[in-house]
Amino acid sequence: MLAIEARGLAKRYTGPLGRKVHDALRGVDLAVPRGTAFGLIGPNGAGKTTFVKTLLGVVRPTAGAVRLLGGDPEDPRIRARVGYMPERLRLSPAWTPLEILASVARLKGAPLPRPRALALLEEVGIAHAAARRVGGFSKGMRQRVGLAAALVGDPELLVLDEPTDGLDPIGRVEVRALLARRLAAGATLFLNSHLLAETERICGRIGILVEGRLAREGPLEALTATSAEWLVRFEGDAPAPALAEAGFTAGGDGRWRFAGEPEPLNAALDRARAAGALVVELQADGKDLEVVLAEALRAGREAA
To answer: Is 218 in a helix, a strand, or coil?
Structure first.
């Protein structure tokens, strides 16, 4: 079953008297299976935030249709099963984290006893400030409160717009661990982020939005794959002639390359180990998301 389904999604903004037409979305089709972590990336102005708002029923599309968890995103029963953290998080400065969570729980119609609210704040690392007014919070602390608010009601679908923005490196590690736990428990994650390294660490599927169109979409390993090549690092005193005889080619950066599928790779590694080599690192050769995004942008400009 699908957590998110968009068909022919389009959104056109017009200025006064119909002038200054801007097509933020141009016929986007997307299907996100339940229980997966999906990352939406793209340059500024690509339409990512418009797409997220359209998914949630905050913005109505000019054309096309959206379904969340098999239902209408404007249906309160569906919205209660979705947790949302917006990009521009606005929290009342006079409220405490406990009061904010209680307000979200009332809107969702989800019971939230104080012990459960404190547990959510503990999960995001802000329980020590549960009774403090958020007006004195740093951006990172506000992000943690916003994430706790998105988790109210144990949603089946989490839609998070820049969830780690403003967090320090330790905070980002903690959020990744939290999201991994939610994913393991069966939730679906939909992340919109400009932090490509974070997206790579969290998401198994990626979509690239360029000028309102979904330029590429698929499993992360498929988008970043280059060829059937592997990078292997052996312990420093590995016998170079034996490695070459086993089928490895020196890469010039201390690593050796092997071209082939997993089965011949395993056979080559067995020959290398038999010659006394010790494998200390093995990874598939591939591109990172920055390269994939740059390629999608170039292809979009050439097609325009």
So the answer is: strand
